[in-house]
Structure formats: structure tokens, C-alpha cells
UniProtKB/TrEMBL annotation:
Gene this chain is encoded by: purM
Entry EC number(s): 6.3.3.1
Ranges where the PurM-like C-terminal domain occurs: 176-344
One GO biological process term: 'de novo' IMP biosynthetic process
Name of the molecule in the record: Phosphoribosylformylglycinamidine cyclo-ligase
InterPro entries referenced in this protein's UniProt entry, alphabetically: PurM-like_C_dom (IPR010918), PurM-like_C_sf (IPR036676), PurM-like_N (IPR016188), PurM-like_N_sf (IPR036921), PurM_cligase (IPR004733)
Family: Belongs to the AIR synthase family.
Native source organism of the sequence: Orlajensenia flava
Lineage: Bacteria, Bacillati, Actinomycetota, Actinomycetes, Micrococcales
The UniProt record lists the keyword Chaperone: no
Length: 368
């Protein structure tokens, strides 16, 4: 093959891909326990699930996701070591929602040009977050797409698998009248609503490398605050004998906002009013809302506004669950109570994303 018709001439650098693998191998291997067979570089990852024979009725849970346009900010300020945690948060924290313990994850990175150090930084973040959630990173793919993506553009996605005993699976069928809704604090924007964030900043002529006191320094650095990981703490809370059966449902507050995601895990006919005064949205949400000339309430269907996860728990167990979460470093509080009493639910959010669920609305004013 002539030089001008080689793969390299077409913009694909296989040698750079090999270097990227070498740079990430140690981080990936650190997530491997005795159940992972083989090393990095195989066509498929192998995970020994013979331990599932001890389950009465094991259910596999799976989830896949990306981090959306948050990657544009990482690219703009050339900081790539936290976006991997965002990916794990978006994928693995969906698995814990059904009560499943994560087993393994794979990742996919598409880019215009392989820069080994950049790819290694992304995968390093994924691996660290996988270790924090007890998830093995068993494989992945880096694909170079010259001509389709810009040289410094990339996108990331991942998929994970977990397992839960059938009679321990969480969901709407467990929710009862009188259950308490416990909110768990987010670390910031997490990975949703960044198209709105980028639009607001663009309209104000603010760059990601700008330093503004409202953001406590660099704008991009503040916006890249990584997603809080809930899986590790929740696995331990769910496994606490003193809290057995206390948690009936979990809801990950991602795309769709606060009310819609909680409504997805409530049965039809059940409703909740979330008390805004029970928490104070972090400053990043207030700053962005002020820049947009809008209210915090208007973004409740886009941003998490300080709540990253909900737990619907038995009414007499809320204090124990909150104490356990607080001990795990997750600020938590009572945000509402489930009811089945006859109630006019016009104006409530009812279900989301194809789920015909319960009804949720936010009431009152946010705490200062």
C-alpha cells in the first residue's frame, strides 16, 4: 500500500492507540478482582459468575449512558481526568436504583484523534470511579473517527451489569402509603442540563477559561465538579441488617429533573409533594439562574438543583437511613412523604420516559 493510501494517511494512528492502552493498563487492572479473567486487550472481557449459583433467583441489571455535552467543557479547558467519574455515575448509579450490586462495566470512547495521554486520563477517571463503586472495568474501545470528529473532539459512553436477588429488587411495587422520601445531596450539576448551561454562558459571552468570583475561580473547573457516586454507600446501606427492608425504592435524578425521576418509581395513584424549603440549592444553580434571568423553579425539569438521588423508605426507618447515609458522607434529609389520599394532582408531574407512574410536584420556596 502506498504511503498516501495508508491508514495513517487517512488519519488513524494505530500506534497512538497502542500507547494509550499501555498508559491505561495499570488503572484498569486495579479494578479487577478474582472474578475477572484475562487482562486488558482481549476481544471480550470475561467475568466469572459462578457465585450466582448461591442466589435463589438472580436478576441481572444493566444500564448504558454517556455524559452528554459536559465533555465540551472538558475539551475546552483541556481537563479530562474527571469526566470518567461522571460516566460511571451516570451508568452504575442507575443499576443501584433497582437494588443491584454492580459487577462489571465497559467503556467506549470515540475521538477525532487519539492522544494517548488524554485517553489515559479519561480511562483513569473511569477506573478510579469503578474502584469506588466496586465495579470491575473489564473492557472498552477507543475509536478514532478522523473527518467525522474534530482532532480534539471526543465522546464517551459506557455500559454496566449488576445483580440482585429477585425478592430484594427495589421498585414501585414496594412503595407504601406513608413512606418517607429521603433526598441525597448532589455534588453539583452532575451530567445533566449542560446544553442549557452552555447556552447561558454563550449568551453572556463567558468563556470556560474565565475566572469569575461567582464560580469561586475558573468557570470550567467549577462546572466540571465530578458527579457524586452513590452506589458504594447505598450497597452498604441496603446490606445493613439493621435497615433490612427499610428502603423500598430509589430514584436517580438525571435527565428530566427532580419531579419526573421520582414519579417514575411511584405506583399509579400515589403522590408526593416535595418541600423546597427542606434544602438550599448550591450556588452554581443560583448563579446560572441569575445569569439567565430566570428562577430556580423554572429549571427543576432540567437540573438536579442539589438532589442527586432519592430513597423512598418506610416511615419509621427514615432517621436510621439518613444516619447511615450521613455516616457514608452523603448529606441527606426528609423532602416529602408518599400519600394515597384522594388529591387533585393536576399540575403534578405524572410518570416520565414511558413509565406510567405516580404524581410529584414541588411546593413552597427554597431555603436561602
Amino acid at each position: 500500500m502506498s504511503a498516501n493510501t495508508s491508514y495513517a494517511a487517512a488519519g488513524v494512528d494505530t500506534a497512538a492507540g497502542d500507547r494509550a492502552v499501555e498508559l491505561m493498563k495499570a488503572a484498569v487492572a486495579a479494578t479487577h478482582g478474582p472474578n475477572v479473567l484475562g487482562g486488558v486487550g482481549g476481544f471480550a472481557g470475561l467475568f466469572d459468575v459462578s457465585f450466582l449459583t448461591s442466589y435463589k433467583q438472580p436478576l441481572l441489571a444493566t444500564s448504558t449512558d454517556g455524559v452528554g455535552t459536559k465533555v465540551a467543557i472538558a475539551q475546552a479547558i483541556d481537563k479530562h481526568d474527571t469526566i470518567g467519574q461522571d460516566l460511571v455515575g451516570m451508568v452504575v448509579d442507575d443499576i443501584i436504583v433497582v437494588g443491584a450490586t454492580p459487577l462489571f462495566m465497559t467503556d467506549y470512547i470515540a475521538c477525532g484523534r487519539v492522544v494517548p495521554e488524554r485517553i489515559a486520563a479519561i480511562v483513569g477517571g473511569i477506573a478510579r470511579a469503578c474502584s469506588a463503586t466496586g465495579t470491575a472495568l473489564v473492557g472498552g474501545e477507543t475509536a478514532e473517527h478522523p473527518g467525522l470528529m474534530g482532532p480534539d473532539d471526543y465522546d464517551v459512553a459506557g455500559a454496566a451489569v449488576g445483580v440482585v436477588e429477585a425478592d430484594a429488587a427495589l421498585g414501585a411495587d414496594r412503595v407504601q402509603d406513608g413512606d418517607v422520601v429521603v433526598a441525597m445531596a448532589s455534588s453539583g450539576l452532575h451530567s445533566n442540563g449542560f446544553s442549557l448551561v452552555r447556552h447561558i454562558l454563550s449568551q453572556r459571552g463567558i468563556g470556560y477559561r474565565d475566572a469569575l468570583p461567582e464560580f469561586g475561580g475558573g468557570v470550567g473547573e467549577a462546572l466540571l465538579e465530578p458527579t457524586r457516586l452513590y452506589t458504594g454507600p447505598l450497597v452498604r446501606v441496603l446490606g445493613d441488617p439493621g435497615l433490612a427492608g427499610a428502603v423500598h425504592a430509589l430514584s436517580h435524578v438525571t435527565g428530566g429533573g427532580i419531579a419526573a425521576n421520582l414519579a417514575r418509581v411511584l405506583p399509579v395513584g400515589f403522590w408526593v409533594e416535595l418541600d423546597r424549603s427542606s434544602w438550599s440549592p448550591p450556588s452554581v444553580f443560583r448563579v446560572l439562574s441569575e445569569m439567565a434571568g430566570s428562577s430556580l423553579e423554572s429549571s427543576e425539569g432540567t437540573w438536579n438543583l442539589g438532589i442527586g438521588m432519592f430513597a423512598v423508605v418506610a416511615g419509621d426507618a427514615s432517621s436510621g437511613v439518613i444516619s447511615a447515609l450521613e455516616a457514608e458522607g452523603i448529606p441527606s434529609w426528609v423532602a416529602g412523604r408518599v400519600s394515597t389520599k384522594p388529591h387533585d394532582v393536576s399540575g403534578f408531574v405524572q410518570g416520565e420516559k414511558g413509565v406510567n407512574g405516580g404524581a410529584v410536584r414541588l411546593v413552597g420556596s427554597y431555603s436561602d
